[in-house]
Amino acid sequence: MKLHSPIKINNKNYARGTEVPWFSIYPFFMIHMLMFGGSGFIMAYSADQVPVSFLYMHGGIAIVVYTIFYLSIFGLDEVKWMFINAGLSVLGIYSQIGWILNYFGRDISDYPLYVHVTPFLYFVLYTFLLRHAILDITGSRENEKKKKRVEYGYVGISLAYYLASSFLT
Q: Does 2 map to a domain?
């Protein structure tokens, strides 16, 4: 993957346009975001809810930082499409969070809409990162034909998973 802005990764400076191996980016961000996103999810939906202002501060700061990194790593056009697709996918995200909450004996409608903002944004950021990781791990980013197959597979598997989880709820 080629960087869109200069960035420092693992104490090493990379210039704009530098090719960076996938294993120097994805493992760190996937684990880091899982920890922050998981804690944000727990804070938003636990029985002992934290104040919404703290939820927004905790999640908001991290989301802004991740978005800045995404802009540096993936570029403005990719990040723009991440948010466009997120807007189109609100119902899909809503069903997934509802499905997860169902496992804890809760219902998504038990919470006001403003509580869902942080978990929804983490979901968007995480699935965006997952798609890019799959493109890089499969080596399909630079091969248009292979990239299309991987993207269709990603959409197909995601759609099957979302439909199955909706029916299981």
A: no
Q: Which two tokens stand for residue 86?
A: 């997120």
Domains in the chain, number:
1
Q: End-to-end CA distance of the chain, in Å?
A: 38
> Is the residue at 49 inside a domain?
yes
Task: Walk along the chain (169 residues) and give the pLDDT tens digit of each residue.
Answer: 788 888 887 788 888 888 888 777 888 888 988 898 899 889 988 878 789 999 999 989 999 999 998 998 888 988 988 887 776 677 677 778 888 888 889 888 888 888 888 888 888 888 888 888 999 999 998 899 999 999 889 888 888 887 887 777 6
- Residue 68 located in a structural domain: yes
pTM (predicted TM-score): 0.62
Q: Which range of residues forms the domain containing residue 123?
A: 7-168
Establish if 84 belongs to a structural domain. Answer: yes
Question: Cβ-count burial of 129 within 10 angstroms (0-12 exposed, 13-18 middle, 19+ buried)?
Answer: buried
